[in-house]
Amino acid sequence: MIIEPSVTFHSEQQLYHFQALNSYKAVAHVVTTRNSFFCSDFNLSFHTGKEEQVIENRNRLCQFFKAKTLTIPKQCHGSTIAQITKDNSGQIPMDTDALITNIPGLAIGVLSADCVPVLFYDPSRQALGAAHAGWKGTLAGIASATVKSMENAYGSNPADLIVCIGPSISQPHFEVGEEVADRFHELGLSACITKAEGEKPHIDLWLANSLLLQKAGILAAHIHTAGVCTVDHTDQFYSARGEGFGTGRFGAFIMLQ
After folding, report:
1. Measured distance CA(228)–CA(174) in Å, rounded
2. Which of 9, 79, 112, 247 would be 140's cystine partner, CB 3.0–4.6 Å?
3. How many angstroms separate the CA atoms of 163 and 118, rounded?
4. What pTM was estimated for this model as a whole?
5. In this predicted structure, what is the pLDDT of residue 1?
């Protein structure tokens, strides 16, 4: 899989942006790092951080977007999707791994520490999505389910969607057991599996999600992969594999302006 240089890093605020989304004035987005906004620990997860600090960090992010609300779900590595409206924005959807909305001013996003964050933008229908795709969510089809939800809720045409696959664990670092590799094989994702003689299989989650998105109708040219590995860059990103599951979480966020 060829990874294009699809993200730019803004050193002043320690944030990443996708070039593919920067050209659309109607949408704002960002991928945070552990150093965002001059913080030494810009952690966004209540599960792994001090509540007061996490609230402060989330408020800072909301202010950065100039958003009415910021919605982040309590993720569970599943395939449940929540539609965010004026009535439920700012709440915490439980056991949810993707959010969609078409209302300006409502920032949505997902958290990660190696799992794949995926952002969706429909410039035709002015609708958004954000999904959290770990290996379990990838197998459960969370990315393609998000596309379907945008179709059903907003009339989105998959061929119109711009999809961005954020920083996450790369294939060389994502070693799995044979039983996990078998599940990817059964789903028709054998191209995502590599195995050297005498070693355990490795899975390419970037390619897996790209292939599943294309199967859902997304054009290959509309899929933009950051190509930044969180395990290789723990100076910028939290990494469960690199640092342990108790580490913090960064996030990928998007909002209609």
Report:
1. 14
2. 79
3. 7
4. 0.96
5. 45
